[in-house]
Amino acid sequence: MTTPDAAELRRRTQDLLAAHPPATTDRTDFLKARFDAGLAWVHYPAGLGGLDAPRSLQTVVDAELAAAGAPDNDPRRIGIGLGMAAPTILGYGTDEQKQRFLRPLWVGEEVWCQLFSEPGAGSDLAALGTRAVRDGEDWVVDGQKVWTSSAHLARWAILIARTDPDQPKHRGISYFICDMTDPGVEVRPLRQITGEAEFNEVFLTGVRIPDSRRLGPVGEGWKVAQTTLMNERVSIGGARIPREGGMIGPVARTWRERPELRTHDLHQRLLTLWVEAEVARLTGTRLRQQLVAGQPGPEGSGMKLAFARLNQEISGLEVELLGQEGLLYSDWTMRRPDLVDFTGRDAGYRYLRSKGNSIEGGTSEVLLNIVAERVLGLPVEPRNDKDVAWKDLAR
Asked: Alpha-carbon distance 79 to 261, whole Å?
């Protein structure tokens, strides 16, 4: 099979539209047909939503479908599945796992969440204490996870747990797919400063996971998790947005529409942040182009760092620009939203929600270490616990 070029992808997209007109085809049926035609992720293997085509040609398909008014798969709602679970399953899953999970994940029939962080293992994720003990063909999992976005909606979760406490912390971890509807899985809302419970705590008590839902070899879960984490940082910090997309957009609109709010100092700060936001956007474009050649690397950590810093500085400027209006907060009602929205609602929401950007997806402090060591080649920070068995670590 020859590698499709742009013309071939346009032809295939037009064939899809002719066979399944968006105006008269059920949304889910259209998305399933798109996946089966290999136009979901064109760079994925044939039969798994792709055509083994260059990643860069996805924009050709997306443009044709958008012009025809075709539905998308609501990527913000299923972002964890698309950005984190899918590339990990593709990289480490068995053929059966890929066939079972990738299609309903992409179509949006099944929402995913991430069971990684714990109360005592956030920045130092490898110190996690959730245990998975082998029992015949199953693993029995006990522990607690925290900061789990969309756990209240999810059918499936990507989970890392300790399977060998006698090994050093990075080498005694295994990676699983957990059914969130199984007995022993309890999801509790975790209310944030915004008033919402976008995050959750998840308690795992005697949860049985078949060994057939393990990703990668036993004890090599940390290696598998690196694929997840690298893709997570790219999906957070390197998302495709138009000029003045993201947090800078509302501030720029307010500046244009409300001249009475302008001051010289605010003007200078806005110009600086506008330029930095545009540089970050273009850098994200460059990063996505680099992905054509392979898996994301530590550059995604740099993008995620910039994303967090800019969001916090821009939202702070917006509150100052609005003056007294910026102190208002429209709604602090407790609710459990269907998606993560970094820029929605009003200025007060954006200001408070952006505080989490330097924590989620890897804290800024940890990402600074990654950039220093893996991008700049600076000396590695001393780690005294690297070769100590997890069970012997001070906690």
From this structure: 36
With pLDDT > 70 as the criterion, what percentage of the chain qualifies? 95
In this structure, which long-range contacts are made by residues 87-90, counting pairs with CB atoms below 8 Å and at least 24 apart in sequence? 87/227, 87/228, 87/231, 87/295, 88/158, 88/175, 88/215, 88/224, 88/227, 88/228, 88/231, 89/177, 89/215, 90/44, 90/45, 90/48
Between CA 83 and CA 89 the distance in angstroms is: 11
CA 318/CA 144 separation, integer angstroms:
37
Query: What amino acid is encoded at 244 in this protein?
Result: E
- State pLDDT tens for residues 211-225: 999 999 999 999 999
Q: Which amino acid is at 385?
A: D
Q: Known catalytic residues?
A: 232
Q: How many CB atoms lie within 10 A of CB 239?
A: 19
For residues 51-61, average pLDDT:
91
Contact of 34 with 42, CB cutoff 8 Å: no
Amino acid at 305: L
pTM over 0.85: yes
